[in-house]
Design goal:
The chain is 35% helix and 26% strand. The protein has six helices and eight strands; from the N terminus they run ααβααβββαββββα. Strands 1, 2, 3, 4, 5, 6, 7 and 8 form an eight-stranded mixed sheet that branches.
């Protein structure tokens, strides 16, 4: 028995619309010909010296007792943005914030943080601190990037964050599959491991 399409013909959908949908993420991804797999990802780790990261971790830990993180703006400014900016220092990646792309009427909107060297990394904020729906939006945005970029990278990496919790996803372009990492990374507790993977992805230390 065939399924009824989730996306209505003639309608326009932004990335935020997929966050708001109550459908299962597997069904949403199937609309674009992709499958979803949940598994523990073997994320790359950078061999770079991360001594300067201690300063970032200390500054986050020092400020947290004085900041209320109940708003999206607070989580973005205090927890997410400092990590993204530190990535530039380590990788010299180009950064685009609220970067608009328009692949089709079903795949368009703004990417929260899009970083690229010769490789790509997408980081998005989970609205309303809803990590599950945030991952669905991340997966759809990775599918949009797959159709948008001209490089032949086999894997496209992304991460969704509530600020204090991060989760990775990876899109396999040949298999047309998105993998959702079962592991979650806490900030500041797991900052070193999280940051090491983010650097390795941008530097292509993915073997």
């Amino acid at each position: 028995m065939s399924k009824t399409s989730i996306l209505e013909a003639g309608n326009s959908y932004s990335f935020r619309n997929y966050f708001e949908m109550t459908y299962e993420p597997e069904d949403i991804l199937a609309e674009f010909g992709f499958s979803l797999q949940r598994s523990t990802l073997e994320l790359p780790q950078s061999a770079d010296n991360l001594e300067q990261l201690a300063q970032l971790k200390n500054s986050i830990e020092r400020r947290l007792p004085y900041v209320s993180l109940t708003s999206e703006a607070a989580r973005r400014e205090i927890l997410i943005a400092p990590i993204v900016l530190a990535l530039i220092d380590y990788t010299q990646a180009q950064l685009r914030i609220e970067y608009s792309i328009n692949v089709s009427e079903q795949l368009k909107g703004s990417l929260d943080y899009y970083l690229y060297t010769q490789h790509n990394l997408l980081i998005i904020e989970a609205k309303n601190a809803n990590l599950a729906r945030g991952f669905t939006q991340l997966a759809v945005e990775l599918i949009a990037i797959d159709k948008w970029i001209t490089s032949e990278e086999p894997l496209l990496y992304g991460a969704v964050s509530t600020g204090d919790i991060w989760q990775f996803g990876v899109l396999n372009r040949e298999q047309k599959q998105v993998k959702q990492d079962l592991n979650l990374y806490r900030v500041p507790a797991d900052l070193n491991q999280l940051f090491s993977s983010l650097i390795a992805i941008l530097n292509n230390n993915t073997n």
